[in-house]
Design goal:
The chain is 26% helix and 13% strand. With 148 residues, the protein is an alpha/beta fold.
């Protein structure tokens, strides 16, 4: 088992509706965060080595997982971080479209985390567009192993 020193510090930033929903049942994106919510998201990214998201968010949305405008990239540089954060996408079954928007923005590495049950046919397509595709866990993603 990994000790706390072997694992990175992780924080989560989500916007939820008053009834506790992260997304509607049909997964159709409806922006409900404020301008300040968006600024906070980018401020948090300015302090992070990596930004992680699930394939269901990254796949159909115009998402790049980058640090945002120059203001936030400069904040990263002042903190001694690279201008652009590492990008991590989680897709246990490798069900992520290789033509998704994230792969059209090549400013920093993209790592895709999958399980060993992911079909080789899907992995081939993702290996062509991502910097790394790594499998952790048989049926469920083993985040401890992946983050170590």
């Amino acid at each position: 088992m990994a000790s706390k020193q072997d694992l990175p510090f992780i924080y989560i930033n989500v916007a939820i509706t008053a009834d506790g929903k992260l997304a509607p049942t049909n997964r159709h994106f409806i922006p409900f965060g404020s301008k300040r919510d968006q600024e906070l998201l980018l401020e948090l990214r300015a302090n992070a080595d990596a930004v992680m998201s699930g394939a269901r968010t990254v796949g159909p949305m115009p998402v790049s997982l980058g640090p945002g405008p120059a203001k936030y990239r400069k904040m990263r540089l002042r903190k001694g971080l690279p201008e652009y954060n590492l990008r991590v996408v989680v897709s246990g079954s490798a069900n992520l479209n290789p033509r998704a928007e994230i792969f059209r923005h090549r400013f920093s590495p993209i790592i895709i985390l999958v399980t060993r049950r992911a079909p080789e046919s899907k992995l081939r397509g993702l290996r062509e567009v991502a910097d790394e595709v790594k499998a952790f866990g048989d049926k469920k993603l083993n985040f401890t192993e992946a983050l170590r």
